[in-house]
Write a structure and sequence with these properties.
Layout lengths: L2 E3 L11 E3 L14 E3 L24 E3 L12 E7 L8 E6 L4 E5 L9 E2 L12 E3 L8 E3 L19 E7 L2 E5 L5 E5 L3 E4 L15 H6 L53 E3 L1 H6 L1
Antiparallel strand pairs: 1-2, 3-4, 5-6, 5-8, 6-7, 9-14, 10-11, 10-14, 11-12, 12-13, 13-15
Length: 277
């Protein structure tokens, strides 16, 4: 979908660039697949503010998206494609032949009236879900499982995809958008195609108020605070002679935070190594 600019009738609209959603469904979501979504305002169960840049936001309904795609060998018809305020990619309402309905992540080039299916081995068509071991090398996939039957967890945001570049005994090699090369169990499911709304990265909000609608409060630099509020605060003038840390004292800017040694062997090349080449 194309980008659209607003007429500069106000200062807040002068630099706004949004995605044209005129082709999406204009009504309300399918009610049986929605639940209420509570807001924390950045506070924990004791009422303490633990996320200082969170708060406000417009009220939302959560759409129950099927990340597992476990209705095997039952074709489903794409009824409509909708905007989801809880994620950057669009979602599609699927009506299966047995009468059940479900939301799935909508990939690019998925059309209304198209049929999709989830099976161990299916046609290489956009929207179909199948096991990684049965896909040809070079296939673009999204909503990738890291453990069989656990549901897709990788490549779920707007425009995201990974490419299958190799196969081994029991595993396949995937190249992620970050440049990381990773081994994934070949019994895991993934959906074919790249996700929709790739122009999401080109959006310009144009004013601070639009960020507040999304639940993002103003961000204050640590060096602009007092010493009691941040480790980098205080000092005469603009001083930054300390090692950069977060408000809670955790290291930033290159500090390694990965601790999951159990899955280190599945990463053939990190995203950091990819950037050096």
């Amino acid at each position: 979908m194309a980008l659209r600019k607003l007429n500069p009738t106000t200062a807040g609209q002068r630099n706004v660039v949004l995605v044209d959603r005129s082709q999406l469904h204009k009504g309300k979501p399918y009610k049986k697949l929605t639940v209420g979504l509570s807001r924390t305002g950045g506070r924990n169960n004791k009422g303490h503010n633990t996320s200082i840049n969170t708060g406000g936001r417009h009220k939302r309904l959560y759409r129950l998206v099927d990340f597992k795609r476990q209705k095997f060998n039952i074709p489903g018809l794409v009824e409509r494609i909708e905007y989801d305020p809880n994620r950057t990619a669009y979602i599609a309402l699927i009506s299966y032949e047995d009468g059940e309905k479900a939301y799935i992540l909508a990939p690019q080039k998925l059309e209304i009236g198209q049929k999709v299916v989830s099976a161990e081995k299916a046609d290489i068509k956009v929207g179909n879900a199948m096991k990684l071991k049965n896909m040809p090398i070079g296939t673009l996939v999204h909503n990738i499982e890291l453990s069989p039957a656990a549901g897709g967890t990788v490549a779920r945001s707007a425009g995201a995809y990974a490419q299958l570049i190799g196969k081994e005994v029991g595993h396949v090699q995937l190249k992620l958008a970050s440049g990381e090369l990773r081994l994934v169990n070949s019994e895991c499911f993934a959906t074919i195609g790249a996700l929709s709304n790739a122009d999401n990265r080109n959006i310009k909000l144009g004013k601070a108020g639009r960020n507040r609608w999304l639940g993002k409060r103003p961000h204050v630099r640590g060096t602009a605070m007092n010493p009691v509020d941040h480790p980098l605060g205080g000092g005469e003038g603009r001083n930054f002679g300390k090692h950069p840390v977060s408000r809670t004292g955790k290291g930033l800017r290159g500090k390694k935070t990965r601790t999951n040694k159990r899955t280190n062997n599945f990463i053939l090349r990190t995203r950091h190594q990819a950037k050096k080449k």
